Amino acid sequence: MRRNLLERMSLRSLRRLVGSLPRSKCTPLQICNFEHRFLSVVAKDSVEQERMLPSELAARYVESLMKRSTLQVETCGKSKSDAVNISVYHDREEESDRKLIAQVKKVFAKEHVNLSPWGSSAKKYQEIFCQHVASLLAHRLNKLLLEPRARLVQNFMHDFTLSEGEVMERLRYISNWAQETKTLSDANSFLDADISLLDEQAESGEESLHSALDMNSDPLLVAGEVMTSPIVKVLWRILHSNEGFMALLFLRGTLSLNRNVVTLQGSSGRQLRYYVNEICERMLQSDLLCFESGSLESNGRTLMFTLNDWREEWGIRHTMHDLVDRLYRGYRFYNLKHKLNPSYSLGTLHLHFASNVPINDESILKTTVSCMDNKNKKLPEPVAIINHVRVRSFIGGLGMEQRFINHIISTELRENFKYFGDVYTLSPMPFFVPWLFHQMKLYSKVIQGDEWDKLVLTSRDAAIVEDILNWLKNSTQDSHRVSQVAQLEQKLLHGKETLMKLASYFLLNERGRRMRCLDSVARIHFSNGAELYRINFMADLSRRRLRQSLGITVNYRYRQEEQEKNMLRFYDETQSLAVAEEASRLQQLANMVYPRP
């Protein structure tokens, strides 16, 4: 009874509002349609009062999501009657979950679009629901192991991803909406009826707001709201919780570290990877990042992050004593952190000044000098060396390495150390040996290549490479040492011409499937405006470097006056990658290799 009374009162107020617009050219049909829509919204709002609270719906949904992600029903070893009971119980649970998911999807129905600055019950319900789901998900994601976390992600995406049919329906909805609102706006039927309200807001210091009808009749605003995926609305609100940023990084790490576990196919996988990358990139590019300079006074957690990253890239034999020894000699390291979680290091970078450009990590102690203490004008000016840069896997591919390097060059070196010279790197080439193995498979026709995967080995090259790779496998079987080092070195020296030619081609001319430059480390530096300075043959004969690049290391050089131009060259497919004048021979070697028919 009370609801009917409210609806009649709303109808009277609506007719009174429409009747107060004598300038309007609305037809009776248009007025009736508008009345029907208005009453529909009133009816929906009244029905929503009887629904459970958004926090309750969010709690039930996340509980269902966790149950589907972590609970596995075991029927083995049960009696027949027990198995039947379990099956019936499982069916009931599935039916309950389907009803709950259907109720959740109604929250994001396209009819709930309302861009009014004053809001609506449906929109506010959606906002509160998304906030609670996001907060609960952030808490759960950080505590789950990889496999249940992957199942949770899959179930969440399955529940919230718009199907192709729903997307097309929403596009038609926008088109119809635009046509109707254009007709009504041409008729001047939607005008601010109460200008005094806006005047009062202006006098009280509040910002003047456009009318709700005016904003809801804008096709661009409506299209943006209708086509915004529910996934985005939840993911953005995850950031509002204290655990949210790390939860998104763990989510991104789940997508990248174990693709056999995460089987997101089609639009679900594409949308999740796109939205998570976009959100993480915006957050990381904001002012929430901080670059912390490390020293002997740094806390133990920071030192351990630095040591572990250093060992991961340059050898597991390094100890904390080695790191402290380098710090005493003027070695510097920096940590990339986020202000929401300052105790966790997102990346590390090592810097030192040297009398010449080193060819491996062990030669750093022999070349390290102090930039500030070099008063002898007869000695050459020291050069800045970045010999290690590494970020966590869950922020890889977002340009954080480039931003880290640029911060060191522009802020630390230029402003703090007053160093304006060239900056060099000591970099590994981690995928050269895997690429050689792949080339041998193509040569022996174990696999068939495609347009992105072409054979470049000649018969002579293949014979040399096969011999070296066989010796490599035999020499590095022991995980702690390299056996038959002298014979392996002899093999490498015998094939130096071939290996240098293939290494130059691999760095400068070999392409990946999605981006120029197959080698990931080379891609970081070339895309950031560096130039290839030197390839060091047999520079590091440790087991790790032999298995990655046959002992080859690489030096890149950053020149401030050339960095921007080199950066553009990387993204211009018609131009070759930047090579220093001192390394022009490497470009010639690379051009000697070409795909075989």
Automatic annotation (TrEMBL):
GO molecular function: malonyl-CoA decarboxylase activity
Domain Malonyl-CoA decarboxylase C-terminal: 319-558
A Pfam family annotated for this UniProt entry: MCD
GO biological process: one example: acetyl-CoA biosynthetic process
GO cellular component, one term: peroxisomal matrix
InterPro entries: Malonyl_CoA_deC, Malonyl_CoA_deC_C, Malonyl_CoA_deC_C_sf
Origin: domain of life: Eukaryota
Annotated protein name in UniProt: Malonyl-CoA decarboxylase C-terminal domain-containing protein
